[in-house]
Amino acid sequence: MDVSFTTKMSLLAGGLLLTLSACSDPQQAAQKSLQKIAASLQQEKTDLDPQKQLAAYQQMVTDVQAITKDYADSATGKALAAGQSVDGISVAGLTKLRDAMAERAPCYASPTSACLRPFSHHPSGPTQARGGAAASGSAQQAAEQICSQGFAAADKALEGMKINKPAYAKEVIQLGLAAGQCQRPDDVKAAVNAFMAIYPGADEQQVNSLLSILATPGLQAAWPEVMAQLEKGLQSGQYGKNATASVTLNLALGYANAGNSAKALEKYRDFTDTLHYRADPSTQQQLAAAIMASGDIDSGLKIMGATANQDVLAVALNQGINALATRLGLFQPGITTRLPFNENTTLHDYLSAVSADVKPAYQSATQAFEGQIDNMAPTVRRSNQTVGLIGLDRDYALLALIHQKLGEPQLATAALKKGQAYGARMLGQPENSPDYPSIAAPGAVVLIAQGDYAGAAHLIQAGNLSSDAYGALLMKAAGQTMNAEQTLDIANTISRQYGLYNTYTVVIPEMAQAGRMDDIDKLIAAWAGNPAQKRLFYGLILDGLVAHGDADAAKEYAQKQHLADDDLGKLRLDAQLLKIPAIATSQAKAEPLIREMFQIGQTLDKGQGVQYSGGSDRMIAQNAAAAAFRNGYVDLGIELYRAAANKDQRPLLAAFEKKIAPQDTTRVLMLANNQLSGDRMKTVVDHAIRALDS
After folding, report:
1. 61, 117, 431, 654, 693 from 126: Cα distances, Å
2. What distance in Å separates the CA atoms of residue 148 and residue 146, rounded to the nearest whole number?
3. Which pLDDT band holds residue 278 (cuts at 50, 70, 90)?
4. How far is 309 from 282, CA to CA, in rounded Å?
5. Distance (Å) of CA 319 to CA 262, 285, 603
6. Of 6, 144, 168, 302, whose CB neighbour count within 10 A is largest?
7. How far apart are CA 399 and CA 411, in angstroms?
8. What is the mean pLDDT of residues 210-219?
9. Which positions ≥6 away from 99 have C-beta within 8 Å?
């Protein structure tokens, strides 16, 4: 427990006066007084109250100055008076400590991001998300704030920039894009409205800026406001002839992308019939596709002039289906050649339900597209436009994926079958086509979602889809529901693409999380690969049991498989168990694990540390302090951090990963201030600022 301020000051002052009066030898008296100051200095290195530490440093400066005066003839007094250091104590050194704390104490006592910023890596701006590295300026600060505090707060950071209109306009659009990425449509609108307040769209450059916004998917929430502003410009007649035509055509495209095909067609007729312009082929195709995606297939095909030529018709329909899939989030904007899949993709998010208010329109458009494809398919001839990446076989696969997204699995299955029949008729062996992966991918997703894992495995194998993480998606799903034999059949089917070892590493945690240990044992017994890899599987099983939240089962399994027989094994097991919410949120359950991690870490740190390919880590004990901080046990974290033989700033950063109470922010900042300096201290301040701003 820290000694109270009053007690410490009484002891310090009383002890010093006693020394002055009782010692007849000036040098001896000066040394004793200096020793008391040194002891007090060491004590202050543990004080977590900034104001008390400041007062103590001030008292030490006064006491050292008293030694130079009262014992001026002693060797110690002379040395101190000359500015020298005696036993690590000097007037200049203590004054520096006092002045540094005087600068920080008020802020540390009541920390805010504004008052902490001068002590961070970048006094005029915030820090980046990782490692405390630098970020630049008010624009970066604003971009960070908009997702947590909204546009109004973020815009304040740009206050000084507002007199420079071009610079402010550029940054405020970046705020809109940032708001779009973190799903804050109202803040997107606010950012774009701020832009339009500066540039209402009077001259050609300003008009182009508004049209650029209208073409940016990340700013889609503000498109209605932008279109309204451009409409005002048209109605006022303030645009020149070419600008009027450009605005009219882009408004047609904007209305089409917003789903208002009637308004889009009205603007397009103004562009062609009234203004007597002709759209470039690319814009014409985009407009037609967007109108078709809204359900008006005939008007879109008419714009493309696609009714007479089957190749043009096939291209137009494919672009319309791509536009519909993009609108449903099945493609990333501008990328329709592949699905946006990686190892972290989940079907739950990718195929999340469409809201009831827009679902009927999407269903109607999908049925209209499928009707057109059905009419074409029986008589169409084979060409580069009718088969493959932009062909009818892929159209059917995409329509199946759209049906699945709309909650229509039966229609999805039917569309897949029609696509397979079409591909077989046109190509004989469609799997041999270089475009087959683009057809197999949406089909595989549909079949995984429907639980047809064998069918999905065939498509993954035939389409060689492992590079797009479809194998991981399939094995996760299979591991949740299938028994060992069925799962192994699926794994062997795609082993050439995904690798049998990879399938095991995905399936085992899923089975363990579901509590299906018998199936796991059968899988491992059937492993014919490297025997050493079986031990890695045991670790994956432990991961799954932890994810399942079964601490007793995890401990029992670790003991059974000898996973925690040595210090490193115990350390890993303790860290794993702390991931279980029921343990992490109970200090009574978590603290024994954290303390054991600390004791093991201290032992390892005193020896060779933890060996790895690049050397060794001899800061293991401090990870226990980080675990305490990370779970909100600040007192325990402070205790263990102080006790760790080797330490740096990393455990203190963990304290700011979640919301932290103001008084605890003060204590962690003081702990860092007492233990760290330079860049390491600034890094802690960086993270404190981030926590306060979140």
Report:
1. 35, 7, 53, 18, 10
2. 6
3. very high
4. 18
5. 19, 8, 65
6. 144
7. 9
8. 88
9. none
- C-alpha span between 191 and 198 (Å, rounded): 11
Question: CB–CB of 511/544 below 8 Å?
Answer: yes
Average pLDDT, the chain: 86
Longest Cα separation, the chain: 118
**Two tokens, residue 282:** 């690319």
Beta-strand (E) ranges in 166-285? none
Q: Which residues of 89-114 are buried (b: 16+ CB within 10 A; e: fewer)?
A: bbbebbbebbeebeebbebbbebebe
Alpha-carbon distance of 408 to 362, in angstroms, equals 12
Q: What pLDDT does 586 receive?
A: 95
Cβ atoms of 494 and 508 within 8 Å: the answer is no
Q: Cα(253)–Cα(240) distance, rounded to whole angstroms?
A: 20
Does residue 459 contact residue 465 with C-beta atoms inside 8 Å? yes
Task: Return the half-sphere exposure (C-beta side, CA atoms, 13 A cut-off) of residue 583.
Answer: 24
Q: What are the structure tokens assigned to 602, written together?
A: 């201290």
Of 458, 373, 369, 446, the residue nearest 405 (C-alpha): 446
How far, in Å, CA of 592 to CA of 581, rounded?
15
What pLDDT is recorded for position 259?
Answer: 87
The C-alpha atoms of residue 150 and residue 19 are separated, in whole angstroms, by 62
What is the DSSP code (8-state) at residue 493?
H
| Cα gap 552→546, rounded to integer Å | 10
pLDDT band per the 50, 70, 90 thresholds, residue 89: confident
Q: Which residues pair with 617 in a beta bridge?
A: 610
Q: Are 567 and 604 in contact (CB under 8 A)?
A: yes
Rounded distance, CA 584 to CA 576, Å? Answer: 10
Are the C-beta atoms of 634 and 593 separated by less than 8 Å? no
Dihedral angle over CA of 69, 71, 77, 81, nearest 10? 20
Ranking 7-11, 57-61, 155-159, 445-449 by mean pLDDT, the lowest is 7-11
In single-letter form, the type of residue at position 318 comes to: N
Name the pTM for this structure: 0.70
| Three-state DSSP class for residue 561 | coil
Name residues whose C-beta falls within 8 Å of residue 640's C-beta, 6 or more positions apart in sequence.
594, 595, 598, 621, 622, 624, 625, 628
Beta bridge partners of 86: 89
Render the burial of 135-165: b for 16+ CB within 10 Å, e for the rest: bebbbbbbbbbbbebebeebbebbeebeeee
d(CA 49, CA 37): 19
Distance spanning both ends of the chain, measured CA to CA = 32
Contact 192, 222 (CB under 8 A): yes
Taking the C-alpha atoms of residue 105 and residue 55, their distance in angstroms, rounded to an integer, is: 10
Angle between helices 241-257 and 223-236 in degrees, nearest 10: 150
Cβ neighbours for 287, distance < 8 A, ≥ 6 positions apart? 249, 252, 253, 256, 264, 268, 279, 300, 303
Contact 648, 680 (CB under 8 A): yes
Higher pLDDT, residue 73 or 268: 268
- Reported as half-sphere exposure (CB side, CA atoms, 13 A), residue 273 has a value of 7
- Provide the angle, in degrees to the nearest 10, between the axes of the packed helices 678-693 and 137-149: 40
Burial label for 481, CB within 10 Å (0-12, 13-18, 19+), is middle
DSSP string, 172-206: HHHHHHHHHHTT-HHHHHHHHHHHHHH--S-SHHH
Residue 487 tokens read as 């799962």
User: Do residues 151 and 191 make contact, with C-beta atoms less than 8 angstroms apart?
Assistant: yes
Query: What CA–CA distance (Å, rounded) separates 119 from 109?
Result: 14
CA distance 590 to 213: 51
